[in-house]
Design a protein that fits this description.
The structure is a homodimer. The first copy, chain A, is α/β, with parallel strands linked by helices and about 375 residues long. Chain A contains 13 helices and 12 strands. Strand 2 of chain A pairs antiparallel with strand 2 of chain B, so a sheet runs across the interface. Chain A binds a DNA duplex (30 and 30 nucleotides) through helix 2 and helix 4.
Chain lengths: ~375, ~375
DNA sequence: ATTCCGCGCTAAACCGGTTTGCTAAACCGG
DNA sequence: CCGGTTTAGCAAACCGGTTTAGCGCGGAAT
């Protein structure tokens, strides 16, 4: 810790200082048994006193592997980390990675360019989540022969993919609402990222199909204004319900494509003076951790988020390690979890008409019963 | 995309195939202007057809920089990613990193060893969060001269540190409860990771000090059983309140050291048949995003989590880039946000005694009013 | 016609480690 | 005392790129 010069010491510096060869220094760190014990000690002492730390990059170069897994997402990290869905997914990937001693490196657009991010990524394999097939960037990786697993993507033919039965889940959600007598139903979809075209085969598209199928089975068709999209955030969900209400629609049930938005819907409902589920039933999607702790606990479509991440992680690790060179795609199940945010449609609220029609006559401006303590910081 | 052999092609392969030197290939990728346009095109075409992707590791080696920021945590990633606090913090770091075109690499124990993880970490600088000074691993980095910023750590003397005024925040929280007339107060602390000794100067210690100071100022001392610790999760919070109740304690106010746990307390309270805030006031800490959407919205101590991450990120980036070689530590403010989970102590609940004493006489077994629909999946 | 310049490209050195193959000395049993 | 094995350590090649210095050449300036 003594003579620290300007530059960081390299292996040659340690070698010179200790009066040995580079090889000896390398051995002192990696295979001490190949050195006389006291030599090894001496070298390490010198190294410590110089503040020497073997350069990991150089090391990885000779080893031709980084033991790092990439998690690729088309969204900015600064926008995604507090999304509970992404958090849980990452947990799953991390679990798989940790078991094999792999680190995690997040790959997301650098200065807006995913390509540039991919070029820099020092990883042995990649789990891509929410990347559409259109994103040509994926080709880059595939062609380069880097082990790659896609999650929640409109499947590329010959790429291992992990998905979830979104359509069946959505179908069950809608069925549930129908069984409770709801006919006036609002669907809240996930807004596709600006610049990205909506993907009929993407997650959103599949869920929409599930909803529609169930609704159509009951002879119901969504009317204009009864399908809204919003960013998948709490605020997005709140805005969606508020907007709908302001437009004069009065659904008795809401199908929301993500729990995060559903929580916003719950909140907005309370602020509109609606009781859930007495006045409004809400069904989410994902079953993130907090959903069982919302008020009321959220009825939602469960998907095994962590397992999805873990499975993807294991798959790509298997590819990296050479076992299982052509791994199959995996499709995981979803299932409806009925909690307390859904209930039978209220007597008074029942309408004769089977569709959710705009009822402009009874349109109200502003909130019927705005909560006076609206959650704004007061201090 | 044609003749793919077993191995991934190297720059030499492309050079040979295109009939040029390695240099030319390198230029084709990095400085095309130094080549005749058609040569550049030809080289890139050959490269594409071979599926060539320049090895990022080799590239970083010559550039002697990885343009990657490390986020160091002593906890396993698989346990931390769905912690909203960590998510928000990471968002902040990511924001700073993205602006400078840096990627993020998470450094956490590999096979239980943080040291090993640090050895592998190919980063230009590190933001360490929640790492105690005792963790000798930090020395490794400091000695190696790697830019390093500590967050929420018992400050090492000569290391730039970002912290938050935990003590003042906790003090304000306790004062608030006292002002509302609460005298029987429960404190829920964060359980230190097993194996780690509790740190009096750590975040938990500072918050505890703030609470105690306020309480002491009102002549109140916590009694045995009125200070419990739990893992900082929703379940941890639920368990803490339940356990307390089962022990026969009947606090009217709870000071919780994290919002995540506070959400658990809220939930457990409801299951115990307690109304919040009528029967029980709850104050959290952190002000994570969902806290304004809980039921009721949570009174809590706000700390600028994202800003903390962003500041730490900027600081370490400044160090990496050579500007600001000896950056100062930063202390950010906390402030109490009063929402709806706190209220005046109820008439009936008021006790004469000023301390939270175990009232074993009225001990109840089981839950007074167990919620029949206890949030378990029913489908 | 010579000089000079810039273009287009290359050979070789370099980044900071690891690994291979080898040598010299020490050891060892017969 | 000898041949053979082990031990300790070294020089050089290598990982896969980037970068520096420089070379041959054609055209413009002198």
């Amino acid at each position: 810790m003594e003579e620290r010069t300007g530059r960081r010491p390299r292996i040659a510096d340690v070698a010179r200082e200790a009066g040995v060869s580079k090889t000896a220094v390398s051995f002192a760190f990696n295979r001490p048994s190949r050195l006389a014990p006291e030599t090894a000690i001496r070298i390490r002492t010198v190294a410590d006193s110089l503040g020497y730390r073997p350069d990991p990059v150089a090391r990885m170069l000779t080893q031709r592997s980084t033991r790092t897994l990439g998690v690729l997402t088309p969204q900015a990290l600064s926008v995604i980390f507090s999304n509970p869905f992404f958090g849980a997914f990452s947990e799953g990937v991390a679990l798989a990675a940790e078991q094999e001693g792999f680190a995690l490196d997040f790959i997301s657009p650098l200065h807006g360019s995913l390509t540039r991010a991919i070029e820099r990524a020092m990883v042995d394999g990649v789990v891509a989540i929410g990347v559409s097939a259109q994103h040509g960037e994926v080709e880059q990786l595939r062609v380069a022969g880097l082990p790659l697993v896609m999650v929640d993507s409109s499947a590329l033919p010959d790429l291992p993919t992990i998905e979830v039965d979104d359509e069946a889940g959505a179908f069950a959600a809608a069925q549930h609402l129908l069984a409770l007598g709801h006919r006036d139903i609002l669907v809240v979809g996930i807004e596709s990222t600006p610049g990205t075209p909506p993907e009929p085969d993407g997650v959103g598209g599949r869920r929409a199909r599930g909803y529609r199928k169930a609704l159509a089975g009951a002879g119901i068709e969504l009317m204009r204004g009864a399908y809204v999209v919003a960013p998948s955030t709490i605020e997005g969900g709140m805005a969606a319900l508020r907007r709908t209400w302001e437009d004069g629609l009065r659904p008795t049930g809401v199908l929301v494509m993500s729990d995060v938005m559903a929580i916003g819907v719950l909140r907005a409902a309370r602020e509109l003076g609606l009781r859930v589920p007495a006045d409004l039933s809400v069904v989410g999607f994902d079953d993130i951790d907090i959903s069982q702790h919302t008020h009321p606990p959220l009825t939602t479509v469960h998907q095994p988020i962590r397992l999805k991440g873990e499975t993807a992680g294991r798959l790509v690790l298997a590819m990296i390690e050479g076992r299982d060179p052509r791994p199959a795609s995996v499709r995981l199940d979803t299932r409806l979890i009925i909690r307390e945010s859904t209930g039978p449609v209220a007597r008074s609220a029942k309408r004769t008409d089977a569709t959710c029609r705009p009822v402009r006559l009874q349109r109200t401006s502003g909130h019927p019963n705005p909560n006076p303590r609206g959650g704004q910081p007061t201090a």
